Amino acid sequence: MFKKGRLKTLFSAAFVCFGLLVIAPGVANAASYKVVKGDSLYTISKLFNTSVSAIQSSNNIKGTVIYPGQVLNVPAATYTVKSGDSLYLIAKKHGISLDSLRKANNKWDDMIYPGQTLIIPGTSSTSAGTSSGTSTSGGNGAKAVVSYSESDVDLLARLIRAEAESQPYEAQVAVGAVVINRVQSDEWPNTIKSVIYQKIGNYYQFSPVENGWINRPATDESKKAAYAALYGSDPSNGAIFYFDDSTTNKWIWSRPIAARIGRMVYTY
Fold it and tell me: Which residues are in the LysM domain (predicted)?
């Protein structure tokens, strides 16, 4: 039997602990991440600043196979959206990039609402952007291979959708990579917008610009593919051209083939 004074002390301690739990609902050592198309244990480990083996251990995974829709426990905090919040402000508050916040939550639009719970991935000491509104770094120190703005991401994603919406995700990333490869080359314009809208003679370099398909809104998948290309993923193996394998253009078929994904062909 407890003495009255000791019982009071234990009750007070329990009340304080409960109060801490109520006051700080957004702090957690682990969060649930839903796997999306294109994910791998490696890319997830980089996003959450952990290791493949740690994810395997915490989720009782024997091999490396994961599938879209699978829910994984990852080392991350969570944050409950408050009135007046935006994705940009939340990312800034936690010292992470907007890109990593989007990736962790598979959130490619800007719509959030009070009470919504977001995953906060690993932080980075690298700035998420520059005063000009362009970005060169992502969460966990990930570096974009070229500078870009949010409008660049949207434009690149719209091109990807127009060119490869019906093709595998890897082919969509490769389309984005071709644009990035041109930006990085001395032989082409040095910005995403100028590459996509480039016109040589009377011909646009990308047919969706000419036929208007570039104006269709980007999809979540095409935005994800755009970000993947911006952060160095290149299934095209350095290609600077691509085309559908149904084309009969002899000149484009004569170029060295770098990769073939789905019905898309990528050449140097």
Answer: 31-74, 77-120
Residue type, 153: V
* Residues 147/129, Cβ–Cβ less than 8 Å: no
User: Are 185 and 125 within one domain?
Assistant: no
- Which single residue is written with the structure tokens 């609902």? 25
Q: Which residues contact 43 (CB under 8 A, 6 or more apart)?
A: none
CATH assignment at residue 93: 3.10.350.10
3-state secondary structure of 204: strand
- Per the domain annotation, does 77 fall within a domain? yes
Q: What is the 3-state secondary structure (H, E, C) of 32-78?
A: EEECCCCCCHHHHHHHCCCCHHHHHHHHCCCCCCCCCCCEEEECCEE
pTM over 0.70: no
- Sorting pLDDT into bands at 50, 70 and 90, what band is 233? confident
Please write the tens of the pLDDT for every residue from 167-196. Answer: 999 999 999 999 999 999 999 999 999 999
Residue 259 is part of a domain; what is its CATH number?
1.10.10.2520
Asked if residue 120 and residue 65 are part of one domain, the reply reads yes
- pLDDT tens for 102-129 read 989 988 888 899 999 999 987 433 333 3
Average the pLDDT over 43-70 and give the result: 90
Residue 15 counted as domain residue: no
135 neighbors 148 (Cβ within 8 angstroms): yes
Cα 260 to Cα 243: distance, rounded to the nearest angstrom: 10
pLDDT of 142: 54
Residues 168 and 263 in one domain: yes
Asked if 175 and 252 sit in the same domain, the reply is yes
| Percent of the chain as helix, strand, coil, to the nearest 5 | 40, 15, 45
Q: What range does the domain containing 123 cover? A: 31-141
